[in-house]
Please model this.
Amino acid sequence: MARIQIEGLGRRFGTTVAVDAVDLTVEDGEFVALLGPSGCGKTTLLRMLAGLIPPSTGRISLDGKDITAATPSDRDVAMVFQSYALYPHLTVARNLAYPLRCKGMRRTEITARVTAVAERLELVPYLNRRPKELSGGQRQRVALGRAMVREPAAFLMDEPLSNLDAKLRAATRTELAALHRDLGATFVYVTHDQVEAMTMASRIVVMNGGRVEQVGTPAEVYDAPASVFVATFLGAPPMNVVPATVTSDEAGVRADGDGVAAHLWPGRTPEHEVLLGIRPEHLVRAADDAALRLDAVVEAVENLGSEEVAQCRVGGAPVAMRGPRPLRLAPGDRVALTCALADLHLFDATTRRRLRWADEPADRAVAVG
Model:
């Protein structure tokens, strides 16, 4: 069992708040990715879990045991670093065995564990080599194997794939996901790469400025982002965000702005400044009777092979449309765009958080308050 519970965890460096009162529970066997841009606090949070940095506030427990002040060696967690942190003068076999030797384990048991891990990670042919004789992918597997031989309650990984080239990174993502399924262990994984988080994690913790913006499955954070930050951090291209004003008329709730006209749904609502969010892949050319209409001017068209991305402007807002090639658009074209209302997201223009209107029909899931 390896259930990690974080309560009010914070860390300051002088007057700088690196992590601000984070509450999070990682269930036993979960693969949780801490996702966010550089400087958002995700690595600081991971290092506090590992015991490498003491928290300024808050509490960490592992399976109900308070480990907030415990030393790294007493936490039953294993850390895999971005730089691999291998001993250059030791062979692969001795690097794998090092944490077991430090624990005073018998040589026969060390040999058995090292052999088992080497076979699982396909490292047997390299056991007598030193790190400088290995490729980046092989070094990454050695670093992971050194964590595995300890048989920890949880694995903590700090961007372990960032030093690999794109092709090897994709292959290693698949290997890591399969390894997690095989081990059934708890993984907490730090990354700034949304593809890594979306393809491997069972839940994603999106961080920004030391705070947690949203916690959810990959589908939840992509399909129902809790804030403009989450909406625009995930996706390639990211979600389009267009300012508008929501009002009511005899036909119901509507949204209007520079280049924007939309009849949303029946009912009434107070006037409110909002941001309309639409994923590029949900935009299509608008029919004359479309409920939502964006009047766009095409500025560039990017060929992605099977798809194209039209970079447009709606009023003063940049808007991207992504679809199968060819879109049959060219720079300078004027085009009306739309999307299904179920794919439209509303955010408060001031708080930039997701909205749900009080009189919105119950069968719509546009927003989460």
